[in-house]
Amino acid sequence: MSAAAPTRGTEPLRVLADVTTWTAGRSGVGLYTERLLQALAAGYPLDQWLLAANLATPEVDIAGERLTSRLPVRALWQQTAMAAHGLLPRRWPDGRRARPDLAFYPNYLAPLLAGSPLPSAPLVVTFHDMAVYLQPETFSFRKRELQRRLLPLVADRAAAILTPSINTRRDVLRLLDVEPRRVVVTPLAADPRFFEPVDDAASAAFRQQHGIGGRYLLAVGTLEPRKNLVRLVTAFERIAATRRDLQLVLVGGKGWRDQAIVDALGRSPASSAIITPGYVSAGALHGLYAGALALCYPSLYEGFGLPVVEAMAAGAPVLVSRGSSLDEVAGDAALAVDPRDHADIADAMARLCDDDGLRQRLRAAGLARAAMFSWARTAELTRDVFLRVRAGVAPDGSEDCPPRR
Prior knowledge:
Blueprint: E1 14-18, H1 29-43, E2 48-53, E3 65-68, H2 74-84, E4 102-105, E5 123-126, H3 131-134, H4 141-157, E6 160-163, H5 166-175, E7 183-185, H6 200-209, E8 215-220, H7 229-240, E9 246-251, H8 259-267, E10 274-278, H9 282-291, E11 294-297, H10 306-313, E12 318-321, H11 326-330, E13 335-337, H12 342-354, H13 356-370, H14 375-391
Parallel strand pairs: 1-2, 1-4, 2-3, 4-5, 5-6, 6-7, 8-9, 8-11, 9-10, 11-12, 12-13
């Protein structure tokens, strides 16, 4: 790619985006896709979108032509569906043929086959983490083998790779043979609603419905091995015996290999104090963050850790694990633990329960930290990559990408 072409211009962008993850009950990548595209649509209203999904009725609420179909395997759909849609004969609202400037894939995988859809459109792909390499035991055999075979090929074809953190960028560069300037950090952010006051009546009704009392610690994430919930439950057992009014609330939908977590909950002597409401809406989650003694997030590995900044925005103190991206995202605004030492986790949980001064300090620091990230900034950084890719300019990726509003 040339290194000197301009990156700014008045010509609107025309982007094909895979929105398959934008579904009801979305979390993780689905929330990233939703909030990024909403911020791009709000900040750059002249840009135009072709919204492709391996779904009959995607939940997308931004303007754009929808290209939907349904195949049982997402990877197969990506290699074939755009051609099946007859994309190129379509027209934009201004009458031009619907040939996009680029194709954006926010969930690791992208078309690779020779002669695959849109062979002339450059690809921008988001790699959220390298867990399939660094935590392979937390994936099914099928998913692990598919991703480990395809990710190097996607990385080779992509004009730009987005990562949510410096740590993930380093992992990509270390594990895949990628030109460094093509890998760009675009940090995530809390939804602005988490900074707003909570609907106290709705929050109280939700807690009453699920039997959540006055004092509780909160964990948020899909129930899967990487979230380290078995150790979290073991740590909670150590402190619950002397804190009879304390509960642990585990929020999140079922994930792969969640049976170990289910078993740990079933045999736990503190099971009566552990609440599992499953997946909850953003409004209910906001109330749970705001009312918690702390968010406990001792994940074994994260590419960013979105619940960390969400909890901080809602005023909750936060406990995170040392390592991966969580140190980077939380900075000095969280209490850090060794995620493989349940005694260390328990000690930190006890401190958060008993030390009001510590909670107040972390609450203030967390609010300031969360305010350093915004989806408007993420959209700005992402669109700058899009513009560079359209212009044939190297994305100029580097680690010098501090979060700021």
